[in-house]
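Follow-up to my earlier ticket, as requested here are the two runs.
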Amino acid sequence: MIDLKNDFPIFKNNQEIVFLDNASSTQKPQYVIDWIKSFLENDYANIHRWAYILSERSENLYEKSKEKVKDFIGAKYPSEINYTYNSTYAINLLTLSLKRSWILKKWDKVLLSIVEHHANVVPWLILKEEIWIEIEYIWINSDYSLDFDALKKKLTPEVKLVSLTYVSNVSWEIFNLEKAGEIIKEKNSDIIFLVDASQAVPNFRVDVAKLKCDFLVFTWHKIMAETWIGVLYGRKELLKKLQSWIGWGWAINRVKEQEYSPAWLPFRFEPGTPNIIWAVSLLKSLEYIENIGWYETIEKNEKRLVAYTLEKIEKLGDSIMLLWSKNKENKIWVFTFSIKWTHSWDIAEFMAKYNICIRAWHHCTEPFMKYCEISWAFRMSLYIYNNEKDIDRFFEVLKEFIKKSKN
């Protein structure tokens, strides 16, 4: 077992904290923090139009980060990697660009799964209000997997786009999107397939070629980099057809009094000065993952702690309900719970008194929660720096809460 907690200074500076809110955002290793500091002290300057050494060094690190991401997800070209603020912004950017490019029009249909995060629901609802697209939902089976029979039936000629999450942020089921991609492309290769990999990329290797997806989004603060750095991957042929809904700076080539021409890829979707510093944090978080043994280390720790947590849950009996996926072979190391007689926020506040960080409420999945007839839930989520002691502490305090709340 590799203990990585000492790599993260936040735990040295807050030794009482048990951080179990990693599905929301992850802590940063010293390796990433040191590199950000070094970059700001030694290399920082604006990029693209440069003729001096500082800008050249900044540009090199920025472009190196894109090469790293390209290899990380199995893309063909660095120009297919577009930096955004986060997954939410990436999906909004894509929806509005599809509208502006006349790729999505009135009465076109978009398919989503019922488990989607609001970030992959609301942008499409906004588009529905603006141009009258139609939205339909794919349901799930009793084992919480995607209903592929329903997917096949719903792939009518009106469907122009399917957008699915790779891992649900509440059920924690890893969906078989390779199969989904095959079904979609066999039905109609022109259907656009978008994957929300926000909860997948932090935990296992994602390959855009195997998924047969046209676009893929994820956010890097869940993978030990800083906030406001996300990725919109798009197939080069499709990106060339898209016109961005925002434009200035490097998003355009030439401007005349009454017209302009859009920039080439990927600058078309990165207007203005990009987030250079956080791109460096992205690069260094990937290097950190490589340094600790790549995904093999993450998945090995994950399997161990998933099994350990499920054992602890079984000992609690019926006093607590583990919601959704209980299959340790097909879920990541995040667990969502409900206690019938109390609100999830009361549990989160009780945990906070003992310096345990968890998340509560509907987790930005209200359609799915309503579908499951659940009003609220609380979530504990692990990552590479967590260990059995953290899990033990969580269940010790949870037992204390159950005991007190019953009285």
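Run two:
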Amino acid sequence: MPNDLWLIDAFTDAAFAGNPAGVCFLKGAMSEQWMQSVANEMNQAETAFLVPRKKDGFDLRWFTPTAEVDLCGHATLASAHFLWAKRKVTPTGTARFHTRSGVLTAARKGKWIVLDFPATPPEACEAPPYLLDAFKAAGSRALKSRFDYMVVLEKPAKLRELKPDFRLLSAIETRGVIVTSPSDEPGVDFLSRFFAPGVGVPEDPVTGSAHCALAPYWAERLGRQTLVGRQVSARGGMVQVELAGERVRLGGKAVTVLKGTIDV
């Protein structure tokens, strides 16, 4: 029996922007090998796999083209968008996802979808070999969160112009590297980019889970709990963030680009 397989652009209100994610809604659990094969076929930064539970929401897993990951924001946003589009969650209801990072929720707030994720505050660290060299950022501050390294630049122009050495980045043992700077845009508090060649994603267009580390860093630095971030990749996208203790609320929009089914 065929299963729904959609392509959804997340953290954007316009098609062909933000971060595309595959969303596969399964009627029952499938093997990891099968899901990894589908994710490789989709060739998106992440493909999400949803399985309904008899009670209390949905099981949710995320796969890049080469590996399963523990947390993914944009594919969770895309999954929530799918559930409301298919009327599998009531318009005023809360979507509950059971994941490798615990229970995550999504709720609608006007035209926005708000995700409730665990905060992953970064801590200052000694930069591992190759990290700063990969960005030609000698002397920049380095931090480490649960999943990623973070490099802080002070000039937005340098962030936008980065051309990383992916050979060096691939040698670093980490899910990915967040690079961030203050914003030079009105209404935006900080800028970022995200690179993860080690899991098959050279540059991710908009990375919700990275904002679980960006939110506590910039909240402390700017003295505010509610902020707006822009990821300045080629596609780009906006993320509203609110630090709430050990949780981060991520706000974004999503647009369906393709609707299909998988028969394999």
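The only thing I checked on run two: Residues 18 and 236 are 5 Å apart (CA to CA). Let me know what else you need.
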